Amino acid sequence: MRAAPTATGIPLRQLLMSLGEPLVELQAAPAGLDVPVRDVAILDPEDPPAAAPGELVLAIGARGRAALPALRAAGRARAAAVAVKLDSPGQADALREAATEAGVALLSVRRETRWEHLDLLARTIIAGPDTPDAPDFNAGDLFSLTQTVAVLTGGIVSIEDASSRVLAYSRSSGSDEVDELRRQSILGWQGPEPYLAKLREWGVFQHLRSSDGVIEIDAHPELGIRRRLAIGIRAGAQPLGAIWVQEGSQPFAPLAEQALVGAARVAAAQLIRRRRELSADVRLTRTLLTGLLEGSTGPQSLATHLGLDLRRPATVLAYTTGAGEAGSDLELTRAEVTGLISVHTAARHRGALLAPIENRVYVLLPELPPGLPVATLRSWAQEVVEAAREHLGVPLRAAIGSTVEGLAEVRSSRAQADRILDAMGRGGVVPDVAALIDVQAEVLVSEVLALLQERSELRDPRLSALAEYDRRHGTRLAESVLAWLDALGEVRVAADALHIHPNTLRYRVRRAEQLTGIDLAQPQQRLLAMLQLRLAE
């Protein structure tokens, strides 16, 4: 979903204080640290370098000197800062010089950091305090809460959601106080598996989901893990997340557990309110998007709701799972697949919108840059398909609809994506990800087969009788004729495909002609036989 930038933003100084080590390090700030940061932009290496005033530009995929065009474009647009990853310390000199010349701040990002994680955290910080009706608690936002809990407990604090994603964390006084579990969690990675296995064995995660009490976890020096306190964030019986406090260079404060109990209640109120606000907005967005894709609502409602430009290019991607998905885990799998598509697509296009409809998930990519290559869209979809296979064990297929000139034509892009998925679902040698140009023949054949399926009067009854003969007598005449047609009459090629002797194949083809009266020497009858027998297959 597209996030509207805040009117005034927050000073770069405040953003850096909240993010801090180990995510980013300031390399240059030629305009000072009071420049306002209003929004976050993800700049893909295949996109032309561009920025807007007050943006924090995340230059993904552009390491070292490759980020120079992004720095210059950000300076011309009066962006607030550019964040890049460095392959070596020596690269920073050239980039600092370019940033100073462009008048834009330069941030270096640790190589292990996940861009989508940094994007989420930066947006959360820029969004600032919650609404005025928030519980009476300092600044009201989660980052302020973690900092206050750190003061009250004497530890180093992080707040996670129910999926163990870090939502906010406190600043630490020195990197020597931070253990490897906290460092990897903030960078977006999981902690050491032996330690996580111990937490599961001790029932820590179960305790956090089911109890309102604080749990203490001993230090594990052999794993580089310090002592911790943790408490679940809950709304009644519903788990919302957890607060973790790592012990630093000093022991926990005497009233640390009491502070955690109060902090969990405040965090629960904030998370519930945010979830309600986001849920209502997500439902409205999804309703408008579904209506646009199905043709029941026009584009203006969605454009007004999200501030989209009706005249910018747009494309629809469609995803569906492979055959064989069934059982009690079906709904869970669909939810996991939808979440995975959402995360990966948002990392590539921050305005991407999702709408699950029946057994497919549609992604609308609005406001695309003019002339975006199909190869770029194909690579984005391929990332999703590979991630679903690797992380969920789910076979996923993706179709790329046509790029249309504006939101008013989005339905035709969806229709093309559906045509491609329909063809892919009928089998044959097709890729996991396809645009129409990749499977033009398969799509045409698929649609002709669909027409034959729907209208029995177009089918040749003699070929239908041949398939019925095979069923009654246990023969394979129809299969043999189709293999011979697919091999363009090459008997040995077709016989090898069926693992039979060439003379057996010749006999079956002659027998099929005798039974049906079809003359396979006639091109039109060969074409019809190929299509109709493929339908029966």
From TrEMBL:
<dbReference type="Pfam" id="PF13556">
    <property type="entry name" value="HTH_30"/>
</dbReference>
<dbReference type="InterPro" id="IPR042070">
    <property type="entry name" value="PucR_C-HTH_sf"/>
</dbReference>
<feature type="domain" description="PucR C-terminal helix-turn-helix">
    <location>
        <begin position="477"/>
        <end position="535"/>
    </location>
</feature>
<dbReference type="InterPro" id="IPR051448">
    <property type="entry name" value="CdaR-like_regulators"/>
</dbReference>
<dbReference type="Pfam" id="PF17853">
    <property type="entry name" value="GGDEF_2"/>
</dbReference>
<dbReference type="InterPro" id="IPR025736">
    <property type="entry name" value="PucR_C-HTH_dom"/>
</dbReference>
<dbReference type="InterPro" id="IPR041522">
    <property type="entry name" value="CdaR_GGDEF"/>
</dbReference>
<comment type="similarity">
    <text>Belongs to the CdaR family.</text>
</comment>
<feature type="domain" description="CdaR GGDEF-like">
    <location>
        <begin position="301"/>
        <end position="422"/>
    </location>
</feature>
<protein>
    <submittedName>
        <fullName>Helix-turn-helix domain-containing protein</fullName>
    </submittedName>
</protein>
